[in-house]
């Protein structure tokens, strides 16, 4: 057997079981959950099954979930991994290996040499036991799910068969649509059903109530798996524990088959077009239904505020039609515009989803002559690589490459800006629309040469991906470092507040500079938690100083005043399409509701979104580092820790320096090549926490605990006590969860980690005696 790596040995020492690693990095997992708006209050189950999570306010809305499992890496280490999802948002994948690796690197990559073989054997044994248990739990969960679905299917079928054909219903009247294959419940139905929420069987759960409208949910074989229940007020429910994925309801018609989310929308589309329409019941089920029914040709998508309808249509891989008004479906559109207008809108050409473009690249001055490519020599008819039986060029990537070569057009992919760079002779126009107009020109040339043009954008992405360009590394390595340091000169441009440790400032700036080079230079796996924050008076040159780190022609790689909402993909794309990015209004952003999501976003090594030229979402390596400027002195408000904010209090900054920034970054690149780290080790994080204390917002709980217990002399007698008991002692009769969290953070800072006991988490706190605290 191959000898284990030093990292694997360290993992077996540090975390004898994968569950120990999960406990150690639990707060980071909570941050990942918060990034999709979910609250993770306890250790996630690692059984491979999906589990519901409440939102950040603690409400169980049944729209946030996680799936945890154990994964074994190639070096034999076993890690907990959790995927967090929320309706209308992108999923987040979390695994603590990178965090552990950075922790190991911070220790110098050392591990004990004592009995490595026995320790690794025990580690593998425990991991194998956990993996076996997880697989057993997953199998049991799948069996439970199948049993629950069968029970729901039987109950739904009985309720459906006992119901009467629908001759009218208040919901249909209000929506202005007809009944197509629906029934109405004539008497209440109950059955033994499984409750996922409660985790148990309910002996007499409601299946359907008298007066409810039923929409059957069938599979491709027409078997009923569930029913959708619609009451007179329009409230919708499914049979508890029943299957939804891949089920649908058909409305018969003639012409191309449509798919829609809700029944009212589907009935409206049928009334407008006469076409067959399939009800998928929600946007998340469109792709599964499309996979079951290859005859579907179009999607009548809802124009949801969270873009769930658009994403569902794109996931189905079908052309779509969507109302122009945000918040409307096609039934709403018919009520507003009339059925005839909807019929006309649905007959317009339906195109696949293609989001609006953003960001363009500047051309290289003087690279192209003033020439119209259409006047150049066309492709020789007999030279196409791929042709039809009649000799016509086929719609293939090699043919497009041949056309580009003929006209001298280059296509590259910019890994930092995450965009295509297309250059062609005679390229003119505004920078704003350069990429879009270039694609249009290529499409026009395809038409001129009788080559199909439908897949031009996708083929351009494939071609460009084979020729990546990294403008940051091109700039840094354009000239080797000449051996003269510019870092001391750069540090002299930063005037710090009196008394602030300038050596500490130099360390933070040095680490941040290396992180910026690592973001650009590492092919994958870059993670940085450090945001360099300049705190000081307004108009002191904080933002301008960061701008001065790049020459004028490179400053489009720096974004100023980015307002990042991790749930808004436009703000995410804008931020991570730059090398250096300023977090705008940091003091306002660091509200408690935003901190966890922002921390989760900053810790990601991959960003997931769909760019205009792509047909599907992609995973993009993070090549962005963040900085911030803030005016107020007390701006930190995270009671779980502020080690992501590398704060330097400044009085002024000289951003008009004449430092050769290319040579500055070339010097930093030599540090990166030598293996110098860009993160803080445990001692440095402790030092940062101490320095950041001056910038933390006042907390009454912390102040009371500090004044009552924080001045204990060395060797004072202690007692074991919970955070709740401490709060009661200092006058909080009914402590809230926020107060408990604040107390826990202060107690950990003063007296170390709590001991886990059956009585709860106990801190060793100095005794109090009559007349004086200690």
Automatic annotation (TrEMBL):
Query: What superkingdom heads the lineage?
Result: Bacteria
Keywords from the named record: Coiled coil
Q: Cite the InterPro entries for this sequence.
A: VapE-like_dom (IPR007936)
Virulence-associated protein E-like domain: which residues? 477-696
Q: Coiled coil where?
A: 113-158
What name does the UniProt record give this protein?
Virulence-associated protein E-like domain-containing protein
């Amino acid at each position: 057997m191959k000898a284990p790596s030093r990292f694997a040995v360290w993992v077996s020492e540090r975390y004898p079981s994968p569950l120990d690693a999960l406990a150690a990095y639990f707060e980071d997992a909570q941050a990942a959950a918060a990034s999709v708006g979910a609250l993770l209050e306890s250790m996630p189950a690692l059984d491979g099954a999906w589990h519901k999570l409440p939102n950040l306010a603690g409400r169980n809305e049944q729209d946030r979930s996680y799936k945890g499992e154990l994964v074994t890496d190639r070096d034999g280490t076993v890690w907990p991994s959790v995927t967090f999802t929320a309706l209308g948002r992108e999923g987040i994948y979390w695994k603590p290996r990178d965090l552990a690796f950075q922790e190991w690197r911070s220790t110098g990559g050392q591990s004990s040499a004592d009995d490595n073989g026995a320790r690794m054997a025990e580690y593998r044994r425990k991991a194998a036991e956990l993996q076996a248990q997880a697989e057993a739990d997953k199998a049991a969960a799948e069996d439970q799910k199948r049993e629950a679905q069968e029970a729901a299917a039987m109950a739904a079928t009985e309720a459906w068969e006992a119901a009467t054909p629908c001759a009218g219903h208040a919901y249909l009247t209000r929506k202005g649509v007809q009944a197509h294959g629906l029934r109405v419940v004539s008497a209440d139905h109950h059955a033994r059903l499984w409750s996922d929420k409660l985790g148990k069987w309910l002996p007499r759960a409601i299946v359907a109530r008298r007066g409810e409208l039923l929409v059957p949910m069938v599979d491709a074989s027409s078997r009923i798996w569930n029913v959708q229940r619609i009451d007179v007020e329009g409230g919708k429910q499914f049979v508890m524990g029943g299957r939804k994925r891949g089920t649908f309801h058909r409305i018969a018609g003639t012409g191309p088959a449509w798919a829609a989310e809700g029944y009212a929308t589907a009935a409206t589309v049928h009334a407008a077009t006469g076409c067959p329409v399939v009800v998928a019941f929600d946007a998340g089920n469109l792709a599964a239904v499309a996979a079951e029914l290859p005859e579907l040709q179009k999607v009548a998508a809802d124009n949801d505020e969270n873009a769930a309808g658009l994403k569902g249509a794109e996931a189905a891989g079908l052309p779509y039609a969507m109302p122009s008004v945000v918040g409307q479906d096609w039934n709403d559109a018919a009520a507003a515009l009339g059925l005839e207008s909807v019929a006309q809108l649905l007959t317009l050409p339906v195109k696949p989803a293609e989001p609006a473009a953003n960001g363009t690249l500047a051309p290289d001055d003087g690279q192209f002559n003033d020439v119209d490519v259409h006047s150049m020599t066309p492709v020789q008819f007999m030279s196409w690589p791929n042709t039809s039986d009649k000799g016509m060029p086929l719609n293939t990537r090699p043919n497009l490459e041949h056309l580009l070569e003929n006209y001298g057009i280059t296509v590259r992919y910019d890994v930092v800006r995450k965009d295509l760079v297309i250059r062609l002779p005679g390229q003119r126009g505004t920078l704003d629309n350069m990429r879009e107009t270039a694609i249009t020109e290529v499409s026009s040339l395809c038409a001129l040469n009788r080559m199909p043009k439908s897949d031009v954008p996708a083929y351009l992405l494939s071609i460009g991906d084979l020729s990546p360009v990294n403008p940051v590394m091109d700039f840094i390595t354009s000239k080797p470092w000449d051996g003269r340091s510019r870092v001391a000169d750069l540090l002299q441009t930063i005037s710090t507040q009196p008394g602030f440790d300038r050596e500490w400032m130099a360390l933070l700036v040095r680490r941040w500079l290396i992180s910026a080079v690592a973001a650009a230079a590492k092919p994958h796996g870059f993670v940085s938690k450090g945001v360099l924050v300049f705190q000081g008076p307004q108009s002191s040159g904080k933002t301008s100083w960061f701008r001065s780190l790049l020459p004028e022609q490179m400053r489009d790689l720096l974004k100023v005043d980015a307002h990042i909402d991790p749930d808004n993909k436009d703000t995410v794309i804008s931020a991570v399409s730059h090398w250096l990015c300023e977090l705008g209004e940091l003091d306002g952003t660091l509200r408690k509701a935003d901190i966890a999501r922002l921390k989760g976003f900053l810790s990601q090594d991959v960003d997931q979104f769909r760019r205009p030229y792509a047909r599907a979402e992609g995973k993009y390596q993070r090549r962005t580092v963040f900085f911030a400027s803030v005016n107020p002195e007390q701006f930190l408000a995270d009671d779980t820790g502020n080690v992501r904010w590398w704060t330097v209090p400044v009085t002024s900054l000289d951003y008009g320096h004449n430092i050769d920034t290319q040579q500055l970054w070339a010097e930093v690149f030599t540090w990166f090549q030598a293996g110098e780290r860009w993160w803080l080790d445990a001692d440095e994080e402790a030092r940062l926490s101490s320095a950041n204390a001056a910038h933390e917002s006042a907390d009454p709980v912390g102040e009371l605990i500090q004044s009552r217990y924080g001045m204990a002399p060395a060797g004072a007698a202690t007692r074991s006590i919970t955070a709740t008991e401490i709060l009661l002692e200092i006058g909080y009769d009914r402590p809230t969860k926020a107060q408990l969290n604040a107390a826990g953070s202060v107690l950990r800072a003063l007296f170390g980690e709590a001991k886990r006991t059956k009585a709860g988490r106990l801190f060793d706190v100095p005794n109090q005696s009559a007349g004086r605290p200690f």
